[in-house]
Specification:
Elements lengths: L7 H34 L6 E9 L2 H4 L7 E3 L11 E5 L2 E5 L5 E2 L1 E7 L5 E8 L15 E10 L4 E9 L3 E7 L10 E2 L5 E7 L5 E7 L13 E8 L4 E2 L5 E5 L12 E8 L2 E8 L7 E7 L7 E2 L6 E2 L12 E12 L2 E9 L12 E8 L6 E2 L9 E3 L20 E4 L12 E2 L7 E4 L2 E4 L14 E5 L4 E9 L8 E9 L2 E10 L2 E10 L8 E10 L5 E8 L2 E8 L5 E2 L4 E2 L5 H4 L6 E7 L8
Antiparallel strand pairs: 1-27, 1-30, 1-32, 2-26, 3-4, 4-6, 5-28, 6-7, 8-9, 9-10, 10-11, 12-13, 13-14, 14-15, 14-16, 17-18, 18-19, 19-20, 19-21, 22-23, 23-24, 24-25, 29-30, 31-41, 32-37, 33-34, 33-41, 34-35, 35-36, 37-38, 38-39, 38-40
Length: 592
């Protein structure tokens, strides 16, 4: 104890000194400490993707500029296969297959068939669609969309393979969302609904032959059912086979599928794909005086195909088929269909895309104009239509740049997840888009914490700026180029010991199935004291992976690699290459 206590005046002086000086010291220390700390901890363990730039640069568009009265074909580039189309008044609506992508069934709107806007997805809720455990090329197959003028209702009918099976959803307005699904009581795939003038409805679809009646591999049939509009299901006992095998069963045609019914001048027309969705793909047409047949094939089948031409032709378009027709203006018709644009190795990385051609129906049967000659990259605009593709409100085609900084209130519809909702792992933050890593690897058949954008060109760059600091070797964030869970490249940042690494891994299925064979192609230790830029680029089959920390120059990691495993030719399946923003807490990549 002090013997001499401080005077009252001294106590006051000391108190004032402490109250004014210590906060200044603490404030100064805290400011310096926080500045240092912010530099050290700027990246987060939950990765933040600050921006994305996708840029397409295909020679075919550079070498074929548009005139004022032209537009490019395909109208939807990248993996937008199996198109179906309908109209109400002068509003056109088009849907495509989505397989294991979520949300499911992208839907587009147009007033003129040239300028399209994506208005969302038909199946945008988990209550409508469960693809959580399916392979990437299972799930939603070949949706059909039809407007019924008798009750002013739109119907979207589809098959969820290894899921809900055949189902239908409805709406009065496609701009305002769709109903919960109605389960349909039949097997097979590729259903489509037709509404007749008398108010009756019919469903046509692909199915297997009756038991014991299969004649060869790929033998399929087309069935028709009457449809109950009150119960939203087919009427039991009304099913009937209306096409057996295809145009000529004696030639053993394979995979008659994707049927659509139309009515013109009192007759019924059944249009189907035939030959399988590959090099022998085609579109064929039949005619009847009743919707239930019998149907007689046109003498001029096929009415659309690219199968007869030189394999090494320039600007090759192939696999054309799986079509749907719509009346445009007066007696003018157009058809949408899938086709592919292979790269220089004759492999398909961009997937099956949506093309369009005018259709001549001045005779008894419709024929796709220039659908039986090698297709060109440009079409003439319909009379009175202006090409606005690529402007703010319309989907782009040709060569274009898509820039995303994640500042919009609504995520662009081009961004998709796999097997589950994007909202389960993404959140918008001030700096960009944060991804919450799942404890799931990209090689697993489960929902992954990956946000995908389709590869839409054979030559492109896809880049992002990433803020991230992994805590352990199980943490990784970066980008992926993916054809399926067993065929992909992973390019990202992880940790080993106390060091950070940039890594590139190739994952490949042997023979399209089995255990995935993983190979670390390259890795490099990095100082992760700033944001890192990651870039995937391709020039046809040649893919490169580059990175840059902070403001440094981009460096290539490893050597140029082949995109063969990103093609359907090697990997199999029905999708195209997807480019993704990826994060996981189940990383298995060990840097070299």
């Amino acid at each position: 104890m002090l013997k001499n206590k401080p005077s009252k005046a001294l106590k006051v002086i000391l108190s004032v000194f402490l109250l004014t000086t210590i906060p200044l010291v603490i404030s100064s220390f805290t400011s310096v400490h926080n500045d240092s700390l912010s530099k050290l901890t700027k990246p987060s363990n939950q990765p933040i993707f600050k921006n994305v730039v996708y840029k397409g640069n295909d020679d075919i568009y550079t070498n074929n500029p548009l005139a004022e009265n032209e537009f490019y074909n395909p109208i939807l580039q990248g993996c937008y296969p199996d198109p179906a189309i309908t109209k109400k008044g002068d509003d056109y609506y088009m849907v495509c297959s989505s397989f294991a992508m979520f949300p499911g069934v992208p839907i587009f709107h147009s007033k003129d068939l040239v300028n399209w806007s994506q208005i969302g997805h038909v199946l945008d809720r988990p209550s409508q669609l469960d693809v959580s455990k399916v392979g990437i090329s299972h799930g939603v197959y070949a949706p059909g969309i039809t407007y019924n003028p008798n009750n002013d209702t739109f119907y979207m009918i589809t098959t969820v393979v290894y899921g809900a099976g055949n189902m239908v959803v409805k709406t009065k307005d496609p701009m305002k969302g769709w109903s919960e699904p109605y389960k349909l009581s039949f097997s097979g795939i590729d259903p489509s609904i037709f509404f007749d003038d008398d108010g009756k409805a019919y469903v046509v679809h692909n199915d297997a032959p009756n038991e014991g009646k299969e004649l060869y591999s790929g033998h399929r049939v087309i069935k028709v059912w009457e449809y109950d509009l009150e119960k939203d299901d087919v009427i039991p006992g009304t099913d009937k086979i209306i096409v057996n095998g295809g145009v000529n069963i004696n030639e053993k045609p394979i995979w008659i599928e994707a049927p659509h019914l139309y009515k013109k001048d009192g007759f019924y027309y059944l249009m189907c794909a035939e030959g399988g969705t590959g090099g022998w793909h085609s579109e064929v047409i039949f005619k009847s005086d009743k919707p239930t047949g019998p149907f007689v094939p046109a003498p001029s089948n096929p009415i659309l195909t690219q199968r007869y031409f030189e394999k090494d032709r320039q600007n090759k378009v192939d696999w054309a088929g799986h079509a749907d027709l719509v009346q445009f203006d007066g007696d003018q018709y157009y058809g949408v269909f899938l086709a592919v644009r292979p790269n220089e190795e004759n492999r398909v990385n961009t997937g099956r895309e949506t093309f369009m051609l005018p259709v001549d129906w001045s005779g008894e049967f419709p024929v796709f104009e220039n659908g039986l000659v090698p297709m060109k990259p440009k079409l003439k605009l319909p009379e009175g239509v202006l090409n606005k593709t690529g402007s703010k409100e319309f989907f782009p085609n040709g060569n274009f740049t898509f820039q995303e900084d994640f500042t919009s209130d609504k995520l662009d519809y081009r961004w998709i997840g796999i097997r589950g909702p994007r909202e389960a792992f993404i959140s918008k933050v001030k700096e960009g888009l944060k991804i919450k890593p799942f404890d799931v690897n990209i090689k697993e058949r489960k929902p992954t914490s990956t946000l995908f954008h389709r590869q839409q060109h054979n030559s492109f760059t896809f880049s992002t700026t990433l803020s991230y600091r992994p805590k352990s070797e199980e943490d990784l964030a970066g980008v992926v180029a993916l054809q399926n869970e067993g065929s992909n490249y992973v390019f990202g940042v992880t940790k080993k010991g106390n060091n950070f690494y940039i890594v590139l891994q190739k994952n490949k299925w042997p023979g399209r199935q089995g255990d995935v064979i993983s190979e670390v192609i390259a890795s490099s230790k990095i100082e992760l004291d700033d944001d890192i830029k990651l870039e995937i680029s391709a020039n046809g089959d040649k893919y490169e992976f580059k990175y840059a920390v902070g403001n440094t120059e981009l460096k290539k990691l490893g050597t140029t690699v082949s995109g063969d495993i990103l093609s359907t030719d090697i990997a199999g399946g029905f999708t195209g290459c997807l480019l993704g923003l990826y994060a996981t807490s189940a990383n298995d990549i060990q840097p070299k």
